[in-house]
Structures are given as structure tokens and as C-alpha cells.
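Feature request disguised as a bug: please show the residue count (732) next to Acyl transferase/acyl hydrolase/lysophospholipase in the output. Example input:
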Amino acid sequence: MGAGNREPIAIVGIAIRFPGGISTPKRFWETLQTGLEVVDGVPKDRFDHNSFYDKDPQKYGTIRSRPCGFVDDQRLVLEASVHAVQDSGTLLKSMAGSRTGVFMGTFMYDHMAMQMATEQRDDTSAHVAMGSMVWATANRVSHRLHLQGPSITLDTACSSSLTALHLACQSIWTQESEGALAGGVNVILRPESSILLSKAGFLSPDRSCKPFDVSANGYVRSEGVGVVYLKSVSRALRDKDRIYASIRGSLVNQNGYTAEGFTVPSLAARVKLLETVYAQSGVDPTKVRYVEAHGPGTAIGDPIEASALGKKLGHARSEDEDSLWIGSGASGIIGFIKAALVTFYGEIPPQLNHRNPNPSINFKALRLAIPTERIILRRDRERKLLVGVNSFGAGGANVHVILEEAPSDMCTGTKISARGARVFVLSAKSQSAFAHAARDLASHLRSQKPLLEDVAYTLNMHRDKHAEISVIKANGLDDICGRLDQLGSEQASKETLTLQKLPGAPSPKVAFVFSGQGGQWLGMGMRLAYQEPIFRDYLAAFDRIFTPLAQFSIIAEIFAYPANDYKMTKTTIAQPAIAAIQVLLARTLISYGVKPDSCVGHSIGEIAAAHISGALSLEEAVKVIYFRSQIQNKAAGAGSMLAAGASAIEAENLIKLVRVSGKVEIAAFNGPKMTTLTGTVADLELVASELEKHGMFARFIKVDTPYHSHFMDHLEDELLKALASFRGRKLN
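Example output, currently without the count:
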């Protein structure tokens, strides 16, 4: 398959942890929109940066303080990987054993250097290598989550994380991986790396990165972690995932030899990179609306990058087309996530620290523009929004990725339930973690004010369940936040059910039991149809199949006005009505996370059970119900059915005591003391009278046909013939 024919890859989960308290994609986007700069000083628990600066550098004796507090790369990447999966709504347990790859980029190994430092020799242990070696960064994620795809940690300097993402895409495209976690991490724990980069002229002396600006004088080192969860678009659509953007293509190349020096970029190599990736991906480069540039903020790097973008993506634009917008916030995975959000939201945030364009860059001739204010990108039905991402390593490793907006058939929008109270399931591994999770969720709900239907659905259906579980009933935002506050302070609540899952205890099994006729009534399900979107949608789907067959709407019959209770006893109405309501109830329960491990049905309930278990499609089930009810209706009026509070032996003895004109049979053994009888109405009335004389329960079932009896025998061949084409599916 040619590269241009490859299926796009969907970005379905994003996890980030950046300076300024940025820990969610939404918070990151809000920070970009406001133009907030989050550069800050060195945390006191890292190292005393003041000890490395002295007004009198020749003064004898500078004592370096030993770093004490730190966070390590492996833990950050593992946490971010879990959060990226959770952001996609995928259960971690569902990924265990899968061919999911893990591809992580790193740059500068402060944690390893600390562990290997001479002053640490007395504290070393057998775990030091496993906990600090760079290769273990990706392997740790694969091990902990039991992922069995490729697991690779790499370093190409500043382009490490985007190179990792490129390899993840290649792995999915070659079907080596069925999905992938890709990203990068950087933690500043020691001063030496910053000292080296500063002496080499890479870092800004005024700690401000100003890409493409006349005052650009270097970049600012930052720490953080970013991870994205990737899968093919077809899988994402099948799983009904939210798709931030899709990846159309990616490519890596190398500068090769540059006469000006090892770290000097190659314009020719970068032009070739762009030329090749767009040709291979089958994408017209002049249709790209925005590029998230590498933007090093240096006198050499900025003009070369701008020139390459202009030559390949800018020059060829027609006069009536906008210039190519370029911006830069950070390299690699952070820039990639920003570009994905630009694609997702359809707008470009203003570029920070850009006041006067670099005179070495002819923006007009190159057809390039810097967004100094918020830019809304026009959506075009004829073509999707395209965005590019650059990332370059100091040693010449160049990467470009092409993003496209999500498919138009992506599942979007929320169908809001009309009912008041909702159920929220919160879970954590320990009581302290549970309290922390409750406080975090309350804070998130208050600040973001999301649709509670979305929150409840995600918590119930797309979060793994751990040892500590609470089921919360709440009505509205204030109510749920109040109950979360109570849980966060470890207080009890009347509307909260708290459970503990014992270690090693098996999960309880759930069975759905589908009944036969007799319990139906006119208007059943009306309130649920109003309250529950899932119930309403499946009812409509059922009716769309049923109406052309029966030439009447089952919805109209169930919700008929004025009421006519007699109709709900008619075989041709009662059977499809009961089956429909049972299917809808099951689908509604499943939508709330109550999934059956097994299904069993009696009479008409067998058909509903067959559909919910997967043995019959909805269309097949509706057709079986239709033919069954139409054919059995030919015995309507021949008799009826009686529920008897007696054992089978007691019922048989009572029947013998009564002088019936015909044949009264046991139609169903419903329980030790509950039996269903069939026969003519007159004969059953005699039996009912005898039952009542003996103090036993007796009630006629609301049917007009004596099912499960000899009255059905002459209809068997006709029903089998009508269902001859049905095969069903075998179930495990």
C-alpha cells in the first residue's frame, strides 16, 4: 500500500503535565489562548541555582549544594501514559496483553546522572539501574500496563519526542502495533546541562524565548511530560472515541554534513523533508493552514526554518489564499499537542513574545505570517483543516508531522437525559487516593462545569474499578460537588454507597433474565422514553424495522391515547411490545455500565435474550418476533393461561379433581410453588375456583392465546418455514 493510501491515525487521548499547573489539555489550551507565560524560577528542592552565580567568579571556593527533592522520568511517563489512556475513555484492563507499542523520547539524563554520581555510591542498590536507566522509560510503561507491542526509548535531542511519535505511527501503519502511546519527558534535576547549553549559546540570557522576533536570543529549557494515545481512525470510530485530530503522514530525515558546523541546520535537508512527506502522504502542501514550528528563537535557526517553510508551503499559494500561519510554543510533543488542539478547536492562539519580526526573514515574500492575535480558521466542507508540526534536533534529526481535522462522521454531541438524579461511580486504590480523587473531581467540575451526563458516563463506563468504590446519587452540579467534598474529607453521605473490593476477589457475575407475557400494560416505558436517550433511540430503531413488516407502529400502540387495555392482550401487539421494552431496558442498563455475563429468557423473552447476547441482530430479532406473533395469533381465542400458586404435582392433582371438558396442561414450571396452566377459558375458570378453595393463588394472565400447549402444535411447521433463512450466531 502506498504511503498516500495509508489509513490516518487518530489521536484519541492526551496527557500533559507542564509548568504553571497545566495538567489537562483544556487547561493547556486556555493558557495558550490567554498568552500566559509560565516561565518560573528553579524550585528550591532541586538545586541552589544562586550557588552557581557569583559577582566575583574568581573568588576562591564555591560549594555546590546536593539536590535532594526530585521527580523521576519513569514515574512521570507512567502516570502520563495512564492519564492518556483514561482521557480516551479506554479501560486499562482492556489493553493488557495487547500489541500496544510504547515510544518515548528523552533528552538530558539528570536523574540517571544523580544516581550514578560519585557522592551517591553509598546509597546505590540493585534497583538503581532499573529505576534510572534511560532505556527503561518506555519499558516501565509496557511492563506496568502489560503492553506487548514495541517498547522504545530514544534520544535525538530536541526532536526526540516527535521522532518517537513518528516511529509509533510507522508501527501502527505496518500493523506491528494495534495502538501506541507516544511522547516525551524532560526533568531538570541538575544544573550541569543548563550550564553546558548556556555556554554553547543555545539559551536565552533573559530567560524568554522569542521565535521569529528581532530580539530572539535563544530558548528557555523547560520540564514536563506529554503523552498521546494513538490508534487507527477506523478503530477510533468503531470505539466511538473522541478524536482530537488525525495524522496523515510523518517523516524523519537528517541534515548530513554541514560545513558551518555540527549543530548548524541544513536548509536543503529541511526543504527535502517537507517535499517528501507531503508527496508521500498525498497532501497538497499549499492547503496547510498552520504550522507549529520548531522555533528555537536563535539568529541562525529561525531564518532557516522560515525559509524552508516558505519555499515548500508558502510560495506556491495563490494570491487569494491566506499566508501560512506559523507559531511556536515548545518543541516536540508539546508542539504536537498544541497543533492537535489547534486542529480540534479550529483556531490559532496568539504567539507569545512576538513584537517585531526578524528582519532576516522576508515574511511577505515567503507568504508566512505570525499570529499576534487569536485567529479563527475557516472550516471548509470541501477540504479538511490541515496543520503541520516541525521538530529539529541539535544533531540534525529533522521531523515533520501532518495533522488533519477529525472525520466528519466522528461521534459528537451529548444526548441529555431528562431525569434529575444521576449515578456517579468513583474508584481508587486506597482511601487516601480516593479522597484525593474526590477533591480533584470536585475542583474540576466547579471550574469546567461539564455536562454531568458526560461525567457520569465516563466514570461509570470508562474508568477502571479499584479496591475503593463509591456510588453517588446526585442531582445537579452543586449536589455532586457537595457529596464529593464529603468524600474528600472522608465523611459519610446518605446518598453515597461505599464498597470495598477485597484483593483477589472475583468480580460478581450479572445475568439478565427476560420474561414472557403477562406483565405488560398500556403506556409502559413512556417515562423512560422521555428521560433516557438510549431507550428512546433503540425504541425508534426497533420501530423502523417493525413498521414496514407489520404495517403499524409499535410505538403508537404502546403509547396509544385514549387508552385501550384490550389491545395489550392481543398477540400481534403484546409480543413485539414486550420484546421491544425488554431490549430497551437492557440497552439502557448496559449504557450505565451494567453489562450481563449471561442472558436467559422465557417465551418471548428468549428472543430479547438472543439479541442482547449477540446471537441475533436487532433486525433478525424483530423479524422473529413479527413472524412468531403473527403465526401464533392464529390460535387467538382458543383459550387462555392461568398463573397458579402451586407446585407441578399439586397442579396436576387439582386438575384431576376438576371435571374439565377439554385438556388443561402445565405450560411452564416457573418455580417450586408457581406453575402456568393453559386450556380453554371455561376449563381454567374451574381450575382457578378449585385453587382458591384450597387457599392457593390463581390469576389469569393477560393473553388471548394459550401458548406453550397443544394449541400451538398445528402452527409449528408454518413458523419453522418462516424462520428457515435465519442462522443466528454461535456464542462462546
